[in-house]
Amino acid sequence: MDFEDGNGKIGNLIVLAFSFIVVAVVIVAFAATYRPYPPGPTFHLSPPPGPPNSPLNSSKSSRKALVPTLPTLDSICMQTDYVSTCRSSLGSVSNGKNLTVKEYLEVAINEAIQDVNEVKELSKQLAASTRTLSDRQALNDCDELLSLGLYELKAAFGVVSNNSELYKQSADVKNWLSAVLAYQEACRDGFKDKKIELTVDNALQNPKQKTSNALAIVDSHLKNPTSPGIISRSLISKDYPLWFSAMNRNLFEGYSNGILQSDAVVAADGSGQFKTIGEALNSYKLNTKGWYVIYVKAGVYNEHVFISRILTNVYMYGDGIDRTIISGSKHTMDGLPAYRTATVAVLGDGFVCKSMTIQNSATSDKETVALRVQADKAAIFKCKIEGSERSLYALAHRQFYRECIITGMKDIIYGDSTIIIQKSSIIVRKSGIPRKFKLVTAQGRTERTETTGFVLHDCTIVQEEEESGKTPTYLGRPGGRYARTIILQSYIGNGIDPEGWIIGFSSREKEIMFFAEFENHGPGADRKRAKLEGYQVITSKSEAVKFTPIHFIQGDLWLPQTGVPFGANLL
């Protein structure tokens, strides 16, 4: 054996043995110092590994900070407006344990569902025992409104329970919960017997507070996509939101050429398939794929049209304003609640109406609703809406009006919907009887976190020429303590009082209302009213843009498919 070869092999063995010893020492040292991360909530989608310099690959202490922790009951409830109600309703379920935001929200919505069911049962009992026809009708309306609210609550609960990426549908959940609050508030309307009104009002307090709390949880905890169980919003192919069903996609894709094939033709003279719109609606098939298109020929149709919740995607068009006319004459002097006076009432989502007049021809000084809309994603184009008080009852949900004429005398646009009226004329009619004042809007938002409000953009607001200067007209009043009305880049004519708005509540309530104007012009666009509490002039386009269709009603996701044009931005 060569001596040098032997020494080389022995040396290599010594080096190798020493290396194993060093590795073993390092492993033992690492095991002695390593501590696993504290247990946290499970991500629905694991975050991908970051690049070499990413915080995801940084030291233990910084990585610990990125692991989301479960919210406490207090951290959830302190974001609501009814903290004690929140603690009592959610605390009894959590039993001292911290839950995920999703779990807290499920409990909050389920609590509201239970309370609404109790009020529904109460309204039925009261209706069975009351002798007054008008109060019985108001209680029946209340029962109907609460049923609609239950439908919205259950839809919200279904999304919360079954969706691991809840943030993607937060706008819809907030819209549904806001509608529930609008229905609960409308339930209080129309009672003659003050005792019944007080009983119903007291019974509604719990469901209203719990619905408001659920909405507050969505509003405060779904803004941050890093909250436990929350993934940031995204769209699927063709920019459809995830809540679109296959039917919705087929429906909208079928309208790409702007031509609609009528499913029903209505003609008062008998030249169509039907003589009344009601008959055409009765032929609606529930498994209809796409629009159900009703063409209403020129003529006067003396009927009251009701489009129920299950009649979705109804597209109704006529031969033009003052050519196709739907006319009714119900009013509250008949003993009916305002809810029941509508000439046309729309509950089915996805409603589109074009080129016709809808009027309530009653001459009463009381509520005479022409059009009541509580359908989500409703679009009204080139229509005239005529009444005297509450001509347009925009009760709930997201709505868009374009190139319309809306006339009336008091609370012309009324309700608690999320609505944009664009490039339209609001005409304050002359009155047959003396009035102290007239009002264009009465927005009914009652809770801070509601997504609702009225926006008039690029509109014309004027009085009839004969009436100018006789009776002061105001742009609006609060219909709820958090009322929100914004008038953007519109012409405001003569006869609009320099004060602009009637804001008659306490100083505290004035602080939480939001009446605003931006770049309006015309003789009625008076800057003096900027001194009013509860009113402000918007000076920043970045603030004003929040009230455009894309941001306020998510219009970019549904308006293009209706064929109704819309201005996505400010002028």
Q: Overview of this structure, please?
A:
With 571 residues, the protein is α/β, with parallel strands linked by helices. Helices cover 33% and strands 19% of the residues. The chain has 13 helices and 24 strands. It has helices spanning 3-33, 60-66, 73-77, 83-94, 101-129, 133-162, 170-186, 194-221, 246-253, 277-282, 507-512, 541-544, 549-552, and strands at 264-266, 292-296, 299-302, 305-307, 314-317, 324-328, 344-346, 352-360, 371-373, 378-386, 392-394, 398-402, 405-408, 413-415, 418-422, 425-428, 438-443, 453-457, 460-463, 473-478, 484-488, 491-492, 514-518, 535-537. It has a 17-stranded parallel beta sheet that branches. Strands 4-7-9-11-14-17-20 form a 7-stranded parallel beta sheet. Strand 1 (264-266), helix 10 (277-282) and strand 2 (292-296) form a beta-alpha-beta unit. The protein is globular and about 70 Å long. Residues 43-54 have a biased composition (Pro residues). The chain crosses the membrane at residues 12-34.
